Amino acid sequence: MSAETTQLRESPSIHRLVLRLQEILCSCSKSIEGGDGSSVSELVDFLETVSGSALENPEDEVAQNNALEILSEIQTFLLSATLDQEVIDALSFELPKVASKFAGLSSRCLEIADGIIDHFIAKCSPRDMLSILCGALSATDRPIYSSGYVASILRGLSKVFISLQRRHFEQMKVAIPIILNVLKAACSELGDEDTEDLNLFHRAIGIADSIRAVCAKFEGRINEKFHALLGLYVLQVMALVSFSAGHKVSNCLPLVSQLSNFLPYCDLSYLGLITGSDVDAATNIIIEEVEDDFMSCLSYVKHGASLSVIWGYIYDDVAQAAGGDMSFVRGELQSNQTNRWQAVGMLKHILASTDVLWELKKHAINFLLCITNGNGTRNDGLTDCSIFLPSLCAASQAITKVIIYAPNTELRKNAYEALKRVLADTPTSERFDILTALLTTSDSSSMILLEVSCTWKVCRECP
Q: Entry's Pfam families (predicted)?
């Protein structure tokens, strides 16, 4: 047990803690002004002991009050008009991260931590602060339940983006993978009914707002790159929001509407999203500008693209926010078989995912039934279906999983009908290739029987 921890437990008096903090701050300032920054580590240790005690004992009112008071004292110190810039610069490398560790304790602690980071952003180099905040965000010693910690740093990054003076795209393309990877990890820690995810995602949307603000400063090729980057970022966050819906899709509605507002700005249409063409176009723009491993942080963009359309299919307000016309999209997919095959391939990302709620899968199946209602055009022999065969196979496999594991009879019946229609919409030779793939990969006798039955019915009904 450290000496600081012992002191906190044996001497809970907040007055004594504040006096000790003031002594450390005074000593630290003098050391920095004298050219020695090593004393900053003593300050960091003290603050982490206070925050750690509060995080480990969430029901301990004394520990919580101690943390709030100490964090407030740090903010008061930093706001002093007499504080030397040299001291601020030295503390900027450590205190944003340390202050963020308090952020998850309470809304008031989050507010103060935000203020501390804001102060450093106002006083220090934006480029340095970008590096510092990215380092804090990707640190391995984040608190166990880190949504507050992440939320505080995300807000700081959204402000830093706007403050950057040059090389905006180059610096953002380094930060975005860190942001998305940490956001994904933080989301996995949240419970089904955790309200902290709302604040976390609002901060993530704040990042999108900042990217859009920076984008507005440029024209031409650089503007195109920012549009593509923003679009892919929004789609990734859309997927994460959808995965974090808890037990009710309505929980996500305000966030989904906010994210959908970005789609028309990024030239992402519902038709382009559900066929994947807009996603591919944005990806092709970005992939020329980034490192090979950049795209790994965007692993859910196609989930986000198809989910964006399904959200609009469910809620008119979302479609309106996205500038989408669902009647037009349905008509285009019903009348164009190539687009329909592409849409089926995109929907597999929803149907195959274990992270997507059954409620959303239900609407995805209903949408699939809507676009394959039998009134649309069929292959005239001129369109090569073979290039779509892998995605159609994967989609068919995803639909069979829904048939087997769906929680209610209605969804199983609708999924069965959807599988029949997908097979019926496929040319004969490719249809049997899909069946072969389904039978080869099936791991249960019931699934094999289901697939054989489905194909037999399709063969009877289709030439």
A: Kinetochor_Ybp2
Q: What is the mean pLDDT of residues 175-190?
A: 89
In a shared domain, residues 152 and 248:
yes
Within a domain: 14: no
C-alpha span between 195 and 395 (Å, rounded): 34
Shared domain check, 43 and 92: yes
What CA–CA distance (Å, rounded) separates 374 from 343? 16
Per DSSP, the three-state class of 322 is: coil
Torsion of the alpha carbons at 303, 262, 232 and 388, rounded to the nearest 10 = 50
Burial readout 206-224 (b: 16 or more C-beta within 10 A, e: otherwise): bbbbbbbebbeeeeeeeee
**Domain that residue 120 falls in:** 20-30+37-124
CA distance 121 to 156: 8
What is the sign of the dihedral through the CA atoms of 30, 33, 38 and 41?
Answer: positive
Indicate the pLDDT class of residue 455, thresholds 50, 70 and 90. low
Does the global pTM surpass 0.85? yes
Q: Is residue 9 part of a domain?
A: no
pLDDT level of residue 375 (50, 70, 90 thresholds)? low
Q: Is 356 inside a domain boundary? A: yes
| Same-domain pairing of 118 and 134 | no
Q: What is the pLDDT of residues 215-273, one digit of tens each?
A: 988 887 888 999 999 999 999 999 999 998 766 778 789 999 999 999 999 999 999 99
Q: How many domains does the chain have?
A: 3
User: Can you spell out the DSSP letters for 270-316?
Assistant: HHHHHHSHHHHHHHHHHHTTS-TTGGGGGTTHHHHHHHHHHHHHH-H
